[in-house]
Amino acid sequence: LYIQHSIRKALKQNEFTLHYQPIVDIETGDIVAVEALLRWYHPKRGWISPATFIPIAEETNLIQPIGDWVLRKVCEQSKVWRKKGLPHVQIGINVSIKQFLQADLVEHIEHVLRTYDLDPFCLKLEITESMAMHHIDYVLAQLQSLKNLGLQLAVDDFGTGYSSLNYLKKLPIDIIKIDRSFVQDMVKHSYDLSIVRAVIEVAHSLQMKVVAEGVETEEQLAILKREGCDRAQGYYFSKPLSAEQFEQLVQSEK
Ligand code: G
Ligand code: G
Ligand code: MN
Ligand code: NA
């Protein structure tokens, strides 16, 4: 109850911020996208991880106002970066199942995009694999509407849930994000490398792009490049950055 109250207060008093982690095109080395990650600085307790408060927000229906705040914030940020003349990057946001099951999600996103005069292609929604597979018929309809709006759609944490490749082919997904556990283990275990290879092959045959998550070493990057993976995200390139830090990084690379 205490944390529930704190989350409400955090929304009111602007204690949330977004950090942005670059996603790099493996071939060119260019930053082509970012993933927006929620951060909460509590005045007394300091940083609280989303892994702690997101599950509570989901249980208490506070995920809806949080999700709305995130959506508006990234639209605003995208506009600011465009005005500042930064190279175009797609911004990905994480969407939780509670948000995704809201009947008015599509209309709501459409409304916010219009409010901020933003091209839908700038926005990428990340849903987890288990979400995608659980409520398949509803999710399929919802994804199709989002796709029709012009958004980019990604499946997050791929490989950790029910990886039904049969379902995957039915989903109007643009991007598959391979979970970092496979990326980290593929260097030592041929089993994990085989999974990475198979995911890339299936994704490409379905016209989807592949992002490897949690890339931390040059060796991992070299393997991913060899295997034809499209994009990479991880501490090897950059940790999640504040908007200002991200701008500096992009400016320094120009
Ligand atoms: O950035 P970090 O590793 O602390 O994130 C932990 C988890 O919180 C990740 O699984 C991430 O997807 C999730 N997360 C981060 N930001 C958001 C957000 O804005 N909305 C939702 N639903 N989940 C988020
Ligand atoms: O579940 P999701 O993929 O949305 O979670 C993203 C989380 O992964 C972020 O909270 C981010 O802090 C974390 N992360 C990003 N890059 C790396 C990395 O290279 N190694 C590890 N261990 N975690 C990472
Ligand atoms: Mn994610
Ligand atoms: Na992930």
TrEMBL record:
Coiled coil: none annotated. It comes from the Bacteria. Residues 1-254 form the EAL domain. This is Bacteriophytochrome cph2. It comes from Anoxybacillus thermarum. The lineage of its organism: Bacteria, Bacillati, Bacillota, Bacilli, Bacillales. The chain holds residues 275 to 528 of 532 of the full protein.
